[in-house]
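Lecture notes, unit on protein representations.

Consider one protein chain, 257 amino acids long.
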Amino acid sequence: MSLDLNTVLKDWPHEPGMIKVRKVTGLDGREKLQLRIDLGVLQMEMTGRPDGLRPHGCDSLLSYHQNRAQLAEASGDNYELTPEECSELQQEGIQYYHRYVSLFQLSDYAGVIRDTQRNLDLFSFVDEHSQREEIVWNFQQFRPYVLMMNTRAKASLLLNEGKFADAMREIERGRDTIIEFFQQSNFPELATKSNEVAFLEEWLEEVSAKRPRSKLELMQREMESAIAKELYEKAAELRDAIKVLKASGQTAEKLKS
């Protein structure tokens, strides 16, 4: 069997600016995730550490260090990561980045939520166990992007279920979390320049525009239109109907409680 990768790649060309992802079945019978890059393909496991390794017998390097930190804490000791260990953790985090970007392309939002939350936990762990600010920022600088991807996945799941209001609240929560992160960092001015915040605000407007309107909202909009056209009798009828609708809604809420 030829080891030349061209035999694999010739029918799956790289296209600059495009993220090309596919699922394949591995020789072990399990699904694998493949990401096409300019010089070849990255192949990842669907769960666990993307490269399939178990460093020190653990699910990941992060898990290994978390276990050691817990043991140190139980003994009353401080657990501090070395720069070399932080570098290894960062390389591992990049693996999860490649996977959650790939999973997003396949609309596997649950997988995106899992892997983005994992990297958010990584950033927090390094923040807690490294005393070097430059190392901590090497991780934290990516928090806004990872929060955005986590928010996109959570909101997308809700939109797939038709829960527009819940999705909008999730987008608002993600946006506000990113802004809060910048405000508490050494670079608060970045909150107004953040591409992640801008994206979520634009998406929020799009979702709001597509959100199905309730009967009450439609009636209120119709009343405003009638007033603008000086159709005051119609506007008055709509106003009274809105009052009745609101009253019936309040009564229903009381009965539920």
